[in-house]
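Think of the structure tokens as a kind of shorthand, similar to the way a musician reads notation: each symbol stands for something richer, in this case the local conformation of the backbone. In the example below we present two proteins back to back. Begin with the first one, reading the sequence and then the tokens, and try to describe in your own words what changes along the chain.
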Amino acid sequence: MRKHIAPRRGLLGPRHAGHTLATDHLGALSLPVGDDGVIIGDDAEGRPQMIGFHRPAPYDVLLIGGLWTAQVLALRAAATGARVAVETGRTQAWTTLAQAAGAGLECVSLHDVGRVPPTGAAVGSPVVVVRDCGMRPPRGRVVSSPWQSVLTLLPYLSPVAPRLMRAATLVGIQRVSPAEAEQIGRILGLARTESEALPTLADGVTLWVSGRDRHWVMTSATDVETGLLGTARRMD
């Protein structure tokens, strides 16, 4: 009896070969933020930090920060084999990245706000949806699900930020005003020293918070990323 295979619907993208690592390099791996391989930068001791976007359960990430960092994360997610769907109201800011990602393969697709189609995410074809929808992103039609993570970018704190922070599994905060830092600290339960540090952060530095875990991470661009996106910046 032949097995019937249903046709695939939704976003199509490239397939990448698996990644390998020499045994003597295993000790260099550090996985405190996530459980697989999107490197987001280094901690104060120079240890690589990662976000595990590819998960068998819904996973929501909120970044209160700059477009530059969100685009670096999108590029690196695509490099791990994920299909990246960008929901944005400023397509022109993402066009060059989408054209350059995947060496010409369509692994990053751009969509107007509210127009992301079903993606067909699966264990062998994970998806990261990046929501760059301004200060008040509408509730998305495409939400996190098994093998489909959602990264929402907020440039600053907004009326919807408290709800998004409480709903997210992982929250990243870049440089914000003292008033914003105080409010974020109350919502996330940050120590006073952590809240007070937020207005002083350098470009490219993010405090990543997941429950009681805290990780200060410096994201440094590769030469290719710098050529495509420029140097790290908080303001766009």
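Once you have a description of the first chain, move to the second and do the same.
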Amino acid sequence: MDTEERRRGILDTARREGSVGVNALADLFKVARETVRRDLHVLEEHGLVRRTHGGAYPVESAGFETTLAVRTTRNVPQKSRIAAAAADLLGDAETVFVDEGFTPQLVAEALPQDRPLTVVTASLAVATSLAAVEKTSVLLLGGRVRGSTMATVDHWASRMLSEFVIDLAYVGANGISREYGLTTPDPAVAEVKAQALRSSRRRIFAGIHSKFGAVSFCRFAGVGDFEAIVTDAGLSSAEAQRYSLLGPQVIRV
């Protein structure tokens, strides 16, 4: 196995398993740990993985995206805290857009149920979780359903969104960086997110710390487009300050 084949094998393993460790990779590919570290460094430079202490995890890209089912099993306590803090920022909003993805789904479930709310969403999971809430009206955007995320996309969804004026949008992303803004792998998803932001008076990003510094294929917003960013304490206070200088309040929970 040559170097390129090994690096492709490392990337495939990371995408299949969700994360990889240096020691396990060294045993798997029968190379030195330092060789694996060099491979991971190259893969990180190419934007394909993010390194951690002792390993790495894959970055979502045009060629790879984790499914909603996988997202519901990872970092759930942190995502639950983020969702609760994001829901606390609702204020006097009466109409809310809730994005696709597991963290936005948790935000939706954390919204108050004792007051009238209208929730617009592309997510079948969000619509299902809120459909039985007595004082919440749910508007599910039409369009093609992406099987990986169970959410609607394409011009039907974007056109429907363009007819609304929404008080507050809760938005997720596959990556957020100070240089490239908020990104996602699929152009159809990016267009729905971008239209939701155009249709909303207020905008909040909710996402786990591992999203920060990651860059995917399609840019749909800048950091400064948001009034608040809600994440977990895994994002350092210094890095949070750097993001806050671009405009939004950064809340770490």
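Compare your description with these statements about the second chain. The mean pLDDT is 94.
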